[in-house]
Design goal:
Blueprint lengths: L2 H20 L4 H12 L16 H10 L3 E2 L1 H9 L8 H4 L16 H16 L3 E5 L15 H9 L4 E3 L8 H14 L7 E7 L1 H11 L7 E9 L5 H4 L3 H9 L11 H4 L3 H11 L7 E6 L11 H8 L20 E6 L10 H4 L13 H20 L1
Parallel strand pairs: 1-7, 2-3, 2-4, 4-5, 5-6, 6-7
Length: about 375
């Protein structure tokens, strides 16, 4: 981007901050649009590139980090939960390299029974904890990722909760909060399955290293569009973007210290993994967001296009390979962008809801992953 364009962007950003300070009711809508526009950094790209990594190259990378491919089993569990099985390929991408699998055809009544029975059994086996990401809670509980998912899971009998973190907190600080909440939970023989979303996953990883005692009652960790490898966007964040995300006044969280975005740079995350991964000692699973272009919400399309210059498999915030834990079990690629994986923003933001494409069966994704984890655990212990 040319110098005069950068100056113009800074002037617009200054005006935006001033307007937020003066107009409290703009906070929820303004935050979402602000994050979308600023985390795109200095890129002016709006069209999809013609050159990107192929899916075959993508899977060669996965083979190099010891990822176990269980997409076929996850697809089977997920698809049989849907009212219309024919919609399954539109939700879970069938990319090259997926193992072949046979899924049985069941009637609608049978699928309903399967869902009810499976939920009851799983609710008796596991407790569920969800860790949101950057800026979580900064505009109130309505916009915390997984709020609707947790409510639906509770209705199905699960002990399901969102672990509270600071939206601008460092991974070290949030790790302490996560460990404290897990330790303070009432005694229960059911182990935790923890879902780490976006920056929430690095926060969970930090908690496992800083507080290893919490692993004793934890069955698995799921990278749910988690930034285990960081984000290329954070690598290139300029001072203006960092200042907007870290310090713009928000009613639900304090200003940050500048570390939350820096911690998402790929160099930081890769260095952390090299130093600490041998201390984790838990089963890890990965669910990746990798939308087709038409399924990307409008505020994320510019960053999606920018990341697509590196790899077409990205969710508008993360490259697919950066959302997969090395050595984990790969469950699937969801045809949804980064925000759609965790929040129904189209329903939460009346003024700008049409900008978001997020009709994703999030509860079914969670339940299908639990079923695979349960099967995997049974086979491991046999």
């Amino acid at each position: 981007m040319k110098d005069n364009a950068v100056v113009l962007m800074r002037e617009k950003s200054f005006k935006f901050i001033t307007r937020i300070k003066a107009t409290p009711w703009l906070h929820p809508v303004g935050l979402i649009l602000q994050v979308a526009s600023t985390i795109v950094l200095t890129s002016c790209t709006t069209a999809l590139p013609h050159v990107a990594s192929s899916t075959s190259e993508h899977h060669l990378k996965l083979a190099g980090v010891g990822v176990r491919d269980m997409r076929a089993e996850f697809r089977s569990e997920f698809c049989k939960r849907l009212p219309n099985r024919s919609s399954c390929p539109d939700i879970l991408l069938h990319l090259p390299g997926e193992p072949s699998g046979v899924t049985s055809v069941a009637s609608s009544a049978t699928r309903k029974s399967i869902k009810s029975d499976a939920s009851s059994v799983l609710a008796g086996k596991y407790r569920l904890a969800f860790v949101p990401g950057l800026l979580a809670g900064c505009v109130g509980p309505k916009f915390i990722p997984f709020s609707d998912t947790v409510e639906a899971l509770r209705a199905e009998g699960f002990d399901s909760r969102i672990l509270l973190i600071e939206g601008r907190g460092s991974s070290e600080h949030n790790a302490d909060l996560i460990a404290q909440q897990l330790s303070d939970a009432s005694p229960d023989p059911r182990p935790w399955i923890v879902f780490g979303y976006s920056k929430g996953l690095p926060d969970v990883l930090e908690a496992l290293v800083r507080h290893p005692v919490i692993k004793r009652n934890m069955a698995a960790v799921v990278s749910y569009a988690g930034a285990v490898g960081g984000s290329q966007l954070a690598d290139e964040t300029n001072n203006l973007s960092t200042n907007l995300l870290e310090y713009v006044p928000l009613p639900g969280c304090d200003s940050g210290d500048g570390s939350s975005i820096h911690s998402l740079s790929r160099d930081v995350r890769h260095a952390w993994w090299q130093s600490h991964h041998t201390k984790l000692h838990l089963p890890f699973y990965s669910i990746v967001a990798a939308p087709r272009a038409e399924r990307v919400s409008y505020p994320l399309r510019s960053s999606y296009a920018m990341l697509s210059h590196t790899d077409i498999l990205n969710d508008g915030q993360l490259l697919a390979t950066d959302a997969i834990v090395p050595g984990s079990v790969l469950l699937g690629y969801v045809n949804a962008d980064h925000w759609a994986m965790a929040m129904p923003l189209s329903k939460q933001i009346p003024v700008a809801g049409a900008l978001f494409i997020d009709d994703v069966p999030r509860v079914d994704l969670v339940l299908a992953s639990l079923q695979v984890i349960s099967h995997h655990a049974s086979k491991t212990h046999d």
